[in-house]
Structures are given as C-alpha cells and as structure tokens.
Amino acid sequence: MKSGLTLGIETSCDETAAAVIKTGTTILSNVVLSQIDIHQKYGGVVPEIASRHHIEAIFPVINEALEKAGVDLGDLEVIAVTYGPGLVGSLLVGVAAAKALAFALKKPLVGVNHIEGHIYANFLDQKVLDPPFVCLTVSGGHTDLLLISKLGEYKILGRTRDDAAGEAFDKIGRVLGLPYPGGPQIEKLALKGEQQAIHFPRALQEEGNFDFSFSGLKTAALNYLNQAKQKGEQVNLPNFAASFQWAIIDILTEKLMAAAEKHKVEQILLSGGVAANSFFRRHVRDRAARRGLKLFYPPAHLCTDNAAMIGSAGYFRYLAGKRSDYSLNAVANLRLGED
Known about the structure:
- This protein is an alpha/beta fold.
- The chain folds into 2 domains: 5-122 and 303-319, Nucleotidyltransferase, domain 5; 130-298, Nucleotidyltransferase, domain 5.
- It has 11 helices and 10 strands.
- The protein has a 5-stranded mixed sheet, sandwiched between helices. Strands 8-7-6-9-10 form a 5-stranded mixed sheet, with helices on both faces.
- It is globular.
- The model has no long low-confidence stretch (mean pLDDT 94).
C-alpha cells in the first residue's frame, strides 16, 4: 500500500534539514538546523566547517523529522535529497545519508535539483498549481528567470552573469559590518530610508534581455562608501540600504514582468531566499495586480533553504517516473534539466 510519504533531505549549504511530506503538498514535519551562528564570525559560510556540522547533525535531524511527523522509516514511500547545486562537501553528506536509507529500506531514491526545490515550495500548504508560469528564483547563489510550460520542464529565459542577487545583498551587508546573512539586515535598515536617495546603476536593461548582472551595482555601492569615507562624510545608512535594495528589486521586477508579457502567461511565481523580502513581495504583488497577473510565492519560512521543498519536488519527480540509482553523486554546479 502506498503511503504518499516522502522524506526530504537538504544539505546544500549551511542548513541541515529534513522533512516529511504527504502527497507532495502537505507538510507533516519540517526540521531545519541552521549554522548561521557558527558562520557569523567569519562573515559567510566556511565550506569545511559546514560539512563537518552536517555530518554531526544529519541523522539526529532526520530522526526529529520522523518523530514530529509521527511516522516510522518503514512508512516512507520515497527518499528525496538535494544533490546540487551547492557546496560539494555539504551536498555529499545529504546524498550519502539518503542513499544509505534508500538501500537499507529498499525505497526509491530521487535526486532533486536545489533550484527546482525552491520552485516547488510554492506547491506546499496543499496547493497544486497548473502551468504555464514564469518563475523568478532569487537566492544567495542563484538568480534564474524560468518559463515553466509543463511541470518538470524548464526553459531558462535569463540568469545572472556574475553575482546572484542574494550574494550582492550579503557582500554589501558584510562591508557595512552587518551580521551574516546581510540581506535581512539590509531590509531592516531600508525600512527607515528613502529608496530614491541614491541612484545606483541597473545593468542589461535592453529590451528582450532577461539576464542579470549585479557586479556593477556592488562596485558602485562600494565606490559610494569609499568616496564618502575619503571626504570624511557620514553615510546615511538607511538611505543607502533602501537605495541599494531598490536597485536590485527594481530590475528583478521589471524583467519578471517583461518575461510574463513576452511569453503571454497569466501566472508568475517567486521562489528562493530573497523572495522572503517583504518589500520585494509587496512591490511584485502591486505590479502583478496592475497587469492582471496571478502571483504565487511561498510563506517566508519556506523561501529559505528547507527540506519540505525538496520532499515536494522529489515526490512529483517520483510520480513522473524519475528515479536515481546508488551512483547518485553531488554536483556542485548542477543546472536545471541536467538529470
């Protein structure tokens, strides 16, 4: 008898996470053990330290997820795990644990692309969405604009040519001396600032170009801070944060709207850690409403890395007949569709 229960495992960066999902849409448990406190003193994630802590935490986190869901290992139907992209050492811990469980329990193993997981966070809370959509996935490591005509099939419309949007937030946050991760800290500062106070550049604005670039913005922001320091001028940090945040959100939203118009879709999705930014959500929601578009995004706690999204994506891949064998390995630079 099929239970519809999927164990999702996520260890792509600095969160050790496990979740139990029913039929791809209902969260029975979602446990995330963050390493933020460990990495804060370094100003970012140290890969060797992250993988070491994953090794210590992986099975206690899995056991906690099972206990909170009220299920036993034998009740599971599928084991789903992130196998890329991400930090290779971190990924290997999750992949090894998933393969061991699948082998011991004789359960199907499904490898999941981390970016696809973020997309499927929109399917949780018992939602099933019907394509086509244009989806913008924005996180610390990824900025991808996708056309999804059919579930599991992705056309890359554009992606970042250098820094991801979340990475730009974190780098400038570090320069400002804000705690890691910098994105949420900049968002808090920006609440008290004026977004038009400083003009920062937007790259690749020509019509029909859906790629992103944030290295020039980052350089402009650093130059602004350095010039103020050389002149002995005090920087208004809330205005700086609001203007920097607006430069990112403005270009993200413009390209999302242009892609929806070009491909004649009526539904758009947001996913990834930056989609938890409340100003970003509100701005996209307002723009979508003016254009008559339906907008979907996950609850804020499901935008950041978690295993519930991996369990959801894994279950739908399983229904589509996708399976992984025991040769599944970590792929640090995995791209969508490379399965």
